[in-house]
Specification:
By secondary structure, the chain is α+β, with helices and mostly antiparallel strands. Helices cover 20% and strands 34% of the residues. The chain has 4 helices and 12 strands, in the order βββαβββααβββαβββ. It has helices at 51-66, 109-126, 128-135, 207-216; strands spanning 8-9, 16-23, 33-45, 74-82, 85-94, 98-106, 151-158, 194-202, 204-205, 221-226, 232-237, 243-246. The strands form 3 sheets. Strands 1, 2, 3, 4, 5 and 6 form a 6-stranded mixed sheet that branches. It is globular, with a radius of gyration of 22 Å.
């Protein structure tokens, strides 16, 4: 599945961004200097992205992410326009499975990007200490904790039901029965069309680590394997802004 099938890339969208240079704190000579390149992709959805905007994106993200991560992997920025507003979607992959995501809208592309980038910068400052521990290996568990492997999983995307669909089996206007899907006795989920299928992984995390990932990536929900007992847990963003945590009864050791 081509996610950017209808996108027109900027002329420099596939070129690497500015180099991120790491220094050994004990040895700062040239022989101890290592350079890593973050690959940056800047694209426009039904609009052109010029070199000046791409350079602005490059310099801004390099400065923001470089404060906390010495080896950023890649960054993707997509600009789109709806009516009179421009939207900037930012996605940055950094080491050890940390995903940063943000978006914002404005009347011009530059302020849209700057606002989205500022959201990422604020979250990074919020989790500064935890991210440093994470980078040093802090998410490998605490002393005495049982090490659980990452669980492979399949992620399905189901087609959304149209607004006029009736799930009770009857048409609202005529009250006639709606023909059932083929395969009597099959699970009700078979009525939904699978439009995408991807492989994913369920990581082993503490609850605080899971909340950090939820916040950094602006995710609505996150399933993880609780490091305390190996069972599957779920956290999600509540409508009141708080984070809900589901720890099913009997889940302890369920994934072991």
């Amino acid at each position: 599945m081509r996610l950017y099938e209808n996108y027109r890339e900027a002329s420099l969208s596939s070129r690497p961004s500015s180099d991120a240079t790491l220094l050994d704190p004990k040895n700062t000579g040239p022989e101890h200097r290592t350079t890593y390149v973050m690959h940056l992709s800047v694209k426009g959805k039904q609009l052109d992205v010029g070199d000046a905007l791409r350079t602005h994106v490059d310099e801004s993200l390099t400065a923001i992410v470089g404060k906390y991560f010495g080896r950023p992997i890649e960054a993707n920025v997509v600009f789109s326009r709806e009516a009179h507003l421009f939207k900037a979607d930012i996605s940055v992959h950094v080491g050890r499975n940390i995903l940063l995501q943000s978006n914002a809208e404005a009347s011009e592309p530059y302020p849209a990007f700057d606002t989205a980038a500022d959201k990422i910068a604020k979250r990074l400052r919020r989790y500064k200490r935890r991210l440093k521990d994470h980078h040093k290996g802090g998410d490998n568990g605490v002393d005495g904790a049982v090490a659980f492997e990452t669980l492979p999983a399949t992620n399905y995307i189901l087609e959304a039901e149209p607004e006029d669909a009736h799930m009770d089996g009857h048409d609202e206007d005529t009250h006639d029965a709606v023909p059932a899907s083929s395969g009597a006795g099959q699970d009700d989920s078979n009525q939904h069309v699978v439009i995408a299928e991807m492989t994913t992984a369920i990581d082993t995390l503490t609850v605080s680590e899971a909340v950090m990932r939820l916040d950094l990536a602006e995710l609505p929900a996150l399933m993880f394997r609780n490091r305390a007992h190996g069972g599957l847990n779920m956290i999600y963003r509540r409508q009141d802004g708080n984070v809900g945590w589901i720890d099913p009864a009997g889940s302890q050791g369920a994934g072991a």
